[in-house]
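Residues pack. Consider this:
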Amino acid sequence: MRKTVFAGVLMFLAIYSSPGQNMINRPAIREMRWSGNYELYIFLSDDSTIVLNTKDLPHAQNLLEGSHQDQLTLLPVGLDNGYVHFLQKQAGAGIPSDTAGKSARPVTLWSSLHESLGGGYVHFIRCLQYALETGYLDLKSPLMKRPETKWRPRPATETWKRTRKWKYYTPDNQKYAIKEYRLQQHEGKAEVLAGIPEEMISAFLNTSDRDYEKMEQKKNFRKKAEIDLIRLLLGSPYLGKVQISYIRTMVMKSVTQFSAFRLPAVIIMDEYNAAVVMSLDERGYRVEQIVFSDDSRLDAETRLGRIQAINNFTAEINQRNNQVFENRLKKYFGK
């Protein structure tokens, strides 16, 4: 008997699954089909069916609106099965987060995570987002708390002056976070946010502490995670080895154990009348499957042309993201 499960129920089950359970591969997609009333049916290999309203799905045009060549393109997709298996092996191998023994350069958040995650900066950002959104990574964890002390350096250093009121190693409220952002911008040291989309930074700057509290109360985990991500990046120059090790551990746990991102991620491309299932693997975004709303009226040449255009679109995003990483982020985080 076929099981039909609506997306809202699936998301509930995914979010409240036990985080310690073993990773189970997402069932393969057997078929996707449009209906006449804006519904998309996804038939899976385990005989279940996901029903999505295409009006509620992300549209590529909206995702790319206002994007720039020097910014990352962050698509709301999950991780590819193969990439998750790779991360599981990395976590199981117990790769140390402290790379100081291999290099004279100091350990940074980027270098520590990149050694385990591989990929580029988009993998670094997306996996941090997963860890924050799922609650595995908590910026107010005891390990992120600064020691209480009356000690002060003499003479007072700039770092001490700007972080002395922080209770944690990252700014723990919007007042401190926005102040730190302004200072880094003024000093020309905003590389920690290099490549982050402008709309995400704008949302951060327009979020008050009251707005942040409302996000927590309404369990708007995705929006809260975006704010926390920027707070974390702003505080990253002040992190110690203990904090970096904690962050790495929580990120690896979230991406190898959490199951919400196992659901198919569908993006609507209106230009091609297409619903596209995409994921993120170790090389970048990958197209898994495509279905056209007007498929029955397409000839073979038009269909192949659209498929090629969608694949080219995805390749262009990956190339742009790689270029952002090469041009702007190595300078700050190191290789």
